[in-house]
Amino acid sequence: MMDFKTQTAPKKIEITQLAVKRQPLKLLRDTEALLRRPTVAILVPILPQRMGNQLLGASSIADDSLKELASVNLEKIGDLEMRSPRIQIGLSFVGFGALMIVVLLLYLNTIHPELSTVELWRKYWHQYVWFVSLGVAGMFILGREAMRS
To answer: What domain range is 35 assigned to?
Structure first.
């Protein structure tokens, strides 16, 4: 039989370090740099001189742009500032879906001119569905933006 009265309550552990809120963009910058810098250091001696210099240049540009990105305060970005990017993403989805449907039609008519339209759609229906779905997703994004106050 176990004696429950002799057991003591667990000690409270104060975790003050977890209370410090890390910004996700700073975490992204630090993590990416932690992975990129050793990789660049390993690859530069192996690559040809010109390509190694280009890789070092790209790495320094990545440092600068990620430092600038980490300075952005995500809590200060409101709904109004995000309206234009959401509209652009919706238009990109719609435009890319429409463009890919046109490319698919051109591909089907040039590669398989002997097949009828029904046979072509029967054979390539999944690509068509993907591109239409992309356009519909863009229309939903645009519709949601239009209904916002």
So the answer is: 24-76
- Please report, to the nearest 10 degrees, the dihedral formed by the alpha carbons of residues 109, 110, 111, 117 taken in order: 10
Half-sphere exposure (CA, 13 Å, Cβ side) for 147? 6
22-70: per-residue pLDDT in tens? Answer: 788 888 889 999 999 999 999 999 999 999 999 999 999 999 999 998 8
* Same-domain pairing of 87 and 143: yes
Does residue 9 sit within a domain? no
Q: DSSP string of 39-80?
A: HHHHHHHHS-HHHHHHHHHHHHHHHHHHHHHHT--GGG--TT
- For the packed helices 24-46 and 49-70, what is the interaxial angle rounded to 10 degrees? 170
